[in-house]
Amino acid sequence: SVLSRAVRSIRLKMFAGLPELGISNGEDLKETLTNCTEPLKAIDQFQMENGILLPTLQSALPFLDLHGTPRLEFHQSVFDELREKLMERVATIAEGKDEDRYIKLEELLEKSFPLVKMPSIQPIVMQVLKHLQKVPEKKLKQVMADKELYKVCAVEVKRQIWQDNQALFGDEVSPLLKQYIVEKEAALFSSDLSVLHNFFSPSPKTRRQGEVVLKLTQMIGKNVKLYDMVLQFLRTLFLRTRNVHYCTLRAELLMSLHDLDISEICSVDPCHKFSWCLDACIREKFVDAKRARELQGFLDGVKKGQEQVLGDLSMILCDPFACNTLVLSTVRNLQELLSQDALPRDSPDLLLLLRMLSLGQGAWDMIDSQVFKEPRMDLEVVTRFLPAMMSIVVDDYTFTVEQKLPSEEKSMYRRTGWRIKMLYSGFFDTYNDMAFGDIFLHLLTGYLTLLSDEFGSEEFCTAVFDNFLLTSFSSKENVHRHCLRLLNHLHQKVLASYMETLMKTLEPPKQSSESVKELYTLLKEKLEASKKSPLEPEEAPSLDLGLHPVAVPSTPKTPL
Questions:
Q1: Contact 327/282 with Cβ under 8 angstroms?
Q2: What pLDDT score was predicted for residue 14?
Q3: Greatest CA separation for the chain
Q4: What ranges does the record give for the region Disordered, renumbered to this chain (predicted)?
Q5: What single string gives the DSSP state of each residue in 78-102?
Q6: Is residue 552 left, alpha or beta, with left meaning phi > 0 and alpha meaning psi from -120 to 50?
Q7: What's the predicted TM-score (pTM) here?
Q8: What phi and psi values does residue 334 have, to the nearest 5 degrees?
Q9: pLDDT digit string (tens) for 9-53?
Q10: Is 537 helix (H, G, I), strand (E, B) or coil?
Q11: What is the CA radius of gyration of the chain?
Q12: Pairing with 170, which of 179, 229, 314, 471 sits 20 to 30 Å away (CA)?
């Protein structure tokens, strides 16, 4: 039958290497039995010639027959034991210090490689390949050409194949890079809206334990050439998509290799010490004065002729976790300046933070243009924008103090609504439309949960939705998703009449993704359920975010 012929073909291939080593196989036995006159004697002779060549064993074998133990079972158990011993011996030789250890392994490879297709021998061959620092080119090509062998060979062998086959390595890495982006986007669109537990909550060390980072780290090992290939893939994808998560992966990969003390790579990456220092800042969510001086030293230390390193530094600074840390540090610096009655232009640390933010935000343009020069800072950021930010901080402190006064002495304006309206008016002019990016909207929706009671006001809803979110949701599906995320979380707080209008506006068109349709359906079900059995109002979350108050001078000595 076709099946029997296929099985026979597979068996022939599996044992095809035995004759090369002077060992008889099934075909030899078949030929012997075909041409002999006494089959039993022929079988005995075949067993004698091809069995275990140990004289004292022959007299012991009949005892196994008396116990009903098949010869196959006995030989298989002996073979398994010898195979394990040999594999252990290979590892011992490779880990030893003998100068000729690799010569021994190459000799063993030559003897065993013809049997690489035999399932019982294959583990030995793969063990030898794994421990060879440099596998002979001919053997590498044979492994690469055979899909089954390539699949089962160790990553140490694959590294030697990949370093000269960028396309093959790209095929292996590409699914991991896609998975990484999917995981980041899933975190940004998480159904959990919280200020204290958001996209930026996991520590750098925790993030580096992710499956993709660990796999890429293992694939690279100590191979500088593979590391450079991955960095080139990340630069290319960043240029093609403008997706800043590739910048995060670039930083995480370097620090993952740092964690494993892979000096072969860390010592040749000019961004290593800068990334190490910045990683510590991200962990603390603050750039202190000491680390600020270190970071500035790295930036100022870029020598003439080495400006290309600015491209990688800008990519590392474009990492959202780095940007978040720089922005948080900027706000804390502004608070300190207020307590000292000082201006932004008087703070070297603040100017450095702005310099790094500017370098990070210019990463795409720099890599695209291949003009490796730090962007010039807009003076109005220091002379107008930051003083305006300080005035907002002063206003917030004033409101906090005012809340402690008797009710008749409080201001009559609605503070939250006024502040939201004022801030949203500036969102339309953000750099690269960042106000409608997933990272900003993820954080914004989280902070809006602190103001859930304000959604009972039509004025507030108009400011949030009509004047901001709904201005772009039809052209930007991500904004549509964030709107639905927010409403799924606090639909009970939204004014009923306004909620009805929102549901009509946010109904997904046919071409919408399944994610948008599922969120809308979920929201619809929640609204229907709340009509049938209204839930008791939830307690509003605390507005205390752990920010430390600073003293503000009662009379400014220098006008802002």
A1: no
A2: 46
A3: 122
A4: 530-560
A5: HHHHHHHHHHHHHHHHHHS--TTHH
A6: beta
A7: 0.83
A8: -65, -40
A9: 434 444 555 666 666 666 777 777 788 888 888 777 777 777 776
A10: coil
A11: 34
A12: 314
